[in-house]
Amino acid sequence: PHNSNTNVRVSLPVVCFVWQTAMVILFGVFIRYNAESDVRWREFRRTNNISSDIENDFYFRYPSFQDVHVMVFVGFGFLMTFLKRYSFGAVGFNFLIAAFGLQWALLMQGWFSSLDTDGKIKIGVENLINADFCVAGCLIAYGAVLGKVSPVQLLVLTLFGITLYAVEEYIILSILHARDAGGSMVIHTFGAYYGLAISWMLYRPNLEQSSRLQGSVYHSDVFAMIGTLFLWMFWPSFNSALTDHGDGQHRAVINTYLSLASTVLTSVAVSSLFQKQGKLDMVHIQNATLAGGVAVGTAAEFMLMPYGSLIVGFFCGIISTLGYIYLTPFLEKHLKIQDTCGVHNLHAMPGVIGGVVGAITAAAATETVYGKEGLINTFDFDGDFKGTTPSRQGGMQAAALCVALVFGIGGGIFVGCILRLPIWGDPADEDCFDDQFYWEVNQEGNIASEILPEDEESVEPVLEYNNHTIRNKNVYVSNLYLICETKQLCFVSNTFLYFQ
Amino acid sequence: PHNSNTNVRVSLPVVCFVWQTAMVILFGVFIRYNAESDVRWREFRRTNNISSDIENDFYFRYPSFQDVHVMVFVGFGFLMTFLKRYSFGAVGFNFLIAAFGLQWALLMQGWFSSLDTDGKIKIGVENLINADFCVAGCLIAYGAVLGKVSPVQLLVLTLFGITLYAVEEYIILSILHARDAGGSMVIHTFGAYYGLAISWMLYRPNLEQSSRLQGSVYHSDVFAMIGTLFLWMFWPSFNSALTDHGDGQHRAVINTYLSLASTVLTSVAVSSLFQKQGKLDMVHIQNATLAGGVAVGTAAEFMLMPYGSLIVGFFCGIISTLGYIYLTPFLEKHLKIQDTCGVHNLHAMPGVIGGVVGAITAAAATETVYGKEGLINTFDFDGDFKGTTPSRQGGMQAAALCVALVFGIGGGIFVGCILRLPIWGDPADEDCFDDQFYWEVNQEGNIASEILPEDEESVEPVLEYNNHTIRNKNVYVSNLYLICETKQLCFVSNTFLYFQ
Amino acid sequence: PHNSNTNVRVSLPVVCFVWQTAMVILFGVFIRYNAESDVRWREFRRTNNISSDIENDFYFRYPSFQDVHVMVFVGFGFLMTFLKRYSFGAVGFNFLIAAFGLQWALLMQGWFSSLDTDGKIKIGVENLINADFCVAGCLIAYGAVLGKVSPVQLLVLTLFGITLYAVEEYIILSILHARDAGGSMVIHTFGAYYGLAISWMLYRPNLEQSSRLQGSVYHSDVFAMIGTLFLWMFWPSFNSALTDHGDGQHRAVINTYLSLASTVLTSVAVSSLFQKQGKLDMVHIQNATLAGGVAVGTAAEFMLMPYGSLIVGFFCGIISTLGYIYLTPFLEKHLKIQDTCGVHNLHAMPGVIGGVVGAITAAAATETVYGKEGLINTFDFDGDFKGTTPSRQGGMQAAALCVALVFGIGGGIFVGCILRLPIWGDPADEDCFDDQFYWEVNQEGNIASEILPEDEESVEPVLEYNNHTIRNKNVYVSNLYLICETKQLCFVSNTFLYFQ
């Protein structure tokens, strides 16, 4: 059912313009500033006896927000640049769908959770963080289909992904009243299974035709490390961005920081252990080292204790790395799930672990450790949920994990069906992982014609490569390779050369 | 009038040493810590009844300051690395002139706005932010002349640019009493026209001789995306760094965040619509996506409303991208303005739009929306400006825009005249966009001699290239190209090849 | 005594697993949340009359902490990517040892300074910053031995380095009661001499066998600039992260910002002055521009005055750049110290200068400048140290510098002895600076075999290179070079070519 026409000159602009126009209208109808970002804040301060401007929520959360923002745009974007010829698509489409997604998320999440009595959604920095979180779910899903879909498909994936996320989040946080500070369930489990299910629906039996591009080169691996490190460093901000003021944010940072540190060591250990001659594999270092951050997402704000965080990170580093070594090939071969970035190892498994750890930690919470007040504050046993017991909370956490799984898999199958329609401009199997179908890629060798002597003797084509017949010219430049030839010779590229 | 001697061994060290020495002396005479950074802060706290250290302005502004700092050094620096062989110059000269500029800005802006009764300039974090802002104006100007000037010229451009900026800013903010939180007028309009006027004065009719280097390669485009993304992500901090504590900073962030998101979608739409086969152009993604941040600069702190921000971003994405497609070639061909980075599209037009949006928003401000107190606080209708009406404020905003334009164009023509003197070591037309004239560029091919068999038969030179005659040797390495030849063959380089 | 077997498949996993398990156990026994990160914070607030959550130390220090975190992982990591084929090792091993080091540092520093009456170490954001600082010392040491050691050796270096650091820090800060906000002595002097002493112990007389890899390529220099700029930008956060709330942090930022700006200009000046044709050397721009941040480390929180900071930066830029030009070759030739990154110029000399500047500034402190209260607060003349005079404090600062030197040099010699044991899997002299011995490096040319015609006529090998005999195949791919050959020809690589 695949359509190899990658021309999106109509569909992409139409989708962008129409959707963005819709955003303008919906924002006009629904979105307003909240009390802390509205010009009447000073009156609000007086009315509510807030002693200083610094107690505006902005100052509690803005530094974390910016860190999350960096994770979404630079972290996810650059992490996916590892492919040798899909860096533009990685960082550029990541940029596009995040920019759309955050607007749609402000609306969807707003309707569910920030709707004021006047029917308006009142936004502040917390909504911006939530929108970025919501987008992160879709970017994780992008990781599973990286290089195999068109930008229009990605926008559709995002539209539905954000919608599903908002519903799932509402069920998990408001109805089940589960806690999920860093989104192990809401973001990672949902996002990863959503992407994997889509990838399963879009299975490409002949993807090995693109295998020459499905790998990294030296520099692209270094670019990917930019993404890895910004994700790794700012993950404490991610897990603490929306937790309680004071100790809640403080503790979430410590737990995440420790879990991530522990993951690095066990990822390195397993990577070395399972490779010939003990050499490390950049794929593991780029990805598995982050699993600890995913897996403390739910429990980061709880009294997980520093050693508890280390233990979570310890096992996630092992599991995630083993996943890259054994599970990814297995999924592709036996379950027909092609997972470009290995999101199953980095987000799905650690996300599920995170949900389980969260459920156990919640169920095991005692007044001895938390204090009466601490228990109420941490788990928000207040209002309708006054008197909830920790063990019941543990049950709700477990139920929440199931909801995330169901929404991820079910939503992914549904959206996958839509994305199979032959109208989205996705690439043929042999054109995957190649930027040149959606980007003007600079013809690196176009200088060659300048410096080749004009009297050069031309010969007939001797080679066909990558669908380009080399015509009766003495120089041929493909996106990847500069090919030139004469009686005597020859082609060359960035990295290799042929001659006759 | 061009001097192709790019040796700056005398002029560059002399300028650096003399100017830096001058800075030391002037700082010694004029600059002191302000009350919030001085060791006597605790006394000040008691005297002024400030209840906690956290109300030191430092904690309101330092996170934003660091984001702005990243925009200035990494954002602008890496945005300009897109050229295939001018990355050192892009990021290195950006570094140099910013480091000088911020010192000079502290003095110039200090004399105009932070001079205490004792004749000293008292500095704190707000001054550091202002200095970074001031520098940003000059870095925008650098974008217009990127690759065509010497480092000494850039330092001269910065010296005068900072000076002009400080005067223009004083007129706009203090005399006209206009508001310009994110500097749509003060920074972007001024900086862009300043650079464009200089570029016009330094017009190079034979610049096409460097055309082979006036483009990107795959990796340089990915490096540039680092700059783009850090600018895009941190722009909310830029526009809110100096706004009022509390709601002022909070609202400026929301407006900027939304405007930028909207811009991304319309930039992508137009880029795809106007290219063959709907392919995206990295130049647009790298630059036009930022136009929304420029254009809400003035109005970011006003009650622009979330949908208002989206609308501004919507149109700026379109206009900026169309500018890259149609206006930049037009300016070069018909107005003799060579604008390397397209600052006209990214800063000049959006800056003017931002000024107009600011004037309209200010003029349309009502007590219904702002409240009496809000109106006074937001527009600072206080002291000498007590009782100013919004419509009058709108007029002042419009006048401010004209001041920025006049200073930019007038100042650029004046400084351009100075930079035409044949003493600055600027490159010849055929040497533009090439790092090797100001940087020790690693001789990438120097290993070749090691591995070429010594008994290789030498032949006479067959080629002259890039001013280097290939001498009677079988290997020639230029900065860019490894050339080697024998009876049978051949040269090769990173990207292309010649053979005989 | 060098063992050229670089197989670390046993040793690396064992060390990682055992040490990480030890961390889990020790954390379980010793580490707990402190009052500000514990769930009982609200009780603590009430008991201690803290009026708002925003006065949790978290909000004073978290933005600075994240900046420091970026410096440690991206700053140091990318600064070392300048080598053409050691980027994986630079950024990857930096990641590994930092992740281990911060855990061990939490314990070691905790035992010395955060041990509560119940025998537990209570941690909060300040401990995380301290751990990152401690790690920075070891990463500096890594700079001296970059490319010449195995990851196992690096872990050993880190284990002992952190231990020595904690002792040295305790002596300097607690016993001698010296102040060292940004760690000119504690971090930079100690770390640099520790690394240099190790490098001296591990002297490799035949290192020139790796000289072809001991340099940069164009792109690797741009990657290194990412490290440089993040270090440069966030250095004010580094020097202020642990200073006093309020004016202490504010002033440390201003001093560091100014010193660094000044250093850039003098580094550029000297770099240009001492190179042929005034061309700038990227090594100087990448490194010497940071010397000013090191050198105001101790005095950043003192009343150094803005011009004082400029003066410190001024001279450090000169000294550090001259160090790269003259001293590094001298050290290698005459003292047998091979200093890959030039840490002697960037950290050792500026660190010592910083210690001296700190001692002088402290000794010169007067009540006129500081006020009685300011003097007590700034230098902590309280408790056991009540009534200390500034001149005595100056003496203690000088003594502290000596302690740092002794621990660095002595510790380095001791650890160097251990690292000389032939069990660590370090590379042979000709294998240094080459990622392929510890990393699965992508065989960039492996596509060549696909596109070479199958009927290509093979010939006998004609070349042996880099220990790889070219076998009876027409294509040979090494990690670095694609080599291919036939009757007529030839090999090519990323950067160079051979032919027959």
TrEMBL record, chains A, B, C:
Any idea which UniProt keywords this protein has? Membrane, Transmembrane, Transmembrane helix
**Which family is this protein grouped under?**
Belongs to the ammonium transporter (TC 2.A.49) family. Rh subfamily.
Example of a GO cellular component annotation carried by this entry: plasma membrane
User: Which positions make up the signal peptide?
Assistant: none
Reported function: Functions as an ammonia transporter. May play a role in the elimination of ammonia in the gill.
Q: Where is the Ammonium transporter AmtB-like domain?
A: 57-422
Query: Which InterPro entries does the record cross-reference, listed alphabetically?
Result: Ammonium/urea_transptr, NH4_transpt_AmtB-like_dom, RhesusRHD
Main location per the UniProt record: membrane
| Sequence intervals crossing the membrane | 12-35, 88-107, 128-146, 152-173, 185-203, 223-242, 254-274, 307-327, 398-421
Membrane topology annotation: Multi-pass membrane protein
What does the record list as GO biological process? ammonium homeostasis
Q: What name does UniProt use for this protein?
A: Rh family C glycoprotein
Q: Enumerate the subcellular locations listed in this protein's record, separating them with semicolons.
A: Membrane
Q: What GO molecular function terms would the record report?
A: ammonium channel activity
Pfam families documented for this protein: Ammonium_transp
Q: Does the keyword Glycoprotein apply?
A: no
